[in-house]
Amino acid sequence: MNAQHEISAHWMKHARHLCCIAALAMLSACGSEPEPPPPATPAAAPVQAAQPQPAAEAPADPTEKMARAVGNGKPGAAVDIKYEFAARPEPGKPVELEVVLIPSAGVDSMTAKFSGMDGITLAGDLTVDYASVTAKEPYKHSVSVLADRAGVFYVTVSVDTAISGATLGRTFAIPFVSGTPQVTQQKASVPATDSTGQPVEPMKAEETAR
């Protein structure tokens, strides 16, 4: 009888112990807060491709709008010549002529001589020497041009270039118009026609015997 009583007491004690554990577990589950989710990893910023740098603009050509002198037709000119008048040439009024000489590669030095023609007068330094030049660099020179009448004229520029001890000569022409040249137009003769509109051919004179 005592043995049964001890077994029952043991099981009741064990049951109370399990009930306490269960109650504690429930209280722990109800009182605890859910753990916050881990913070989201920020997306990596897209890598921007390097923008190409704009190419540096080439310096403006100061001779871009100038006219080009006419060469003498020989190939291989060692210098290029451009020109511009300060104003429109008029008879009896001097006008400044600006000339730009542009040597090619290999030119060591150059000499330019200016001359006119019948009807125009040049003033200023008509011979200019460049003891040392750089290829493609513009070398400016100015002379005064005076036309004594209206017409078409030209200024001659003779250039001697030194290349590796050798001298190469070229001649250029700078044409211009002074005033308003008179243009003579011949009136074309209109052939005679008959009543039908056909041209009348003149008959040769014939002698008749009497």
Task: Give a short synopsis of this structure.
The longest helix is centred in the N-terminal third of the chain and has 30 residues, at 2-31. The protein is 14% helix and 33% strand.
Please give a structural write-up:
This protein has one helix spanning 2-31, and strands spanning 67-68, 70-71, 79-85, 95-103, 109-115, 120-123, 127-130, 139-147, 151-163, 166-178. With 210 residues, the protein is α+β, with helices and mostly antiparallel strands. Strands 1-3-4-8-6 form a 5-stranded antiparallel sheet, with no helix packed on it. Strands 2-10-9-5-7 form a 5-stranded antiparallel sheet, with no helix packed on it. The radius of gyration is 53 Å and the shape is elongated.
Q: Low-confidence segments, ≥5 residues, pLDDT <50?
A: 184-188, 203-210
User: How many separate helices?
Assistant: 1
Please state roughly what percent of the residues sit in beta strands, choosing from under 5%, 5-15%, 15-25%, 25-35%, 35-45% or over 45%.
25-35%
Largest sheet geometry? 5 strands, antiparallel
Radius of gyration: 53 Å
Q: Numbering strands along the chain, what is their spatial order in the largest sheet?
A: 1-3-4-8-6
How confident is the prediction overall: mean pLDDT? 78
Q: What fraction, in percent, of the residue positions are helical?
A: 10-25%
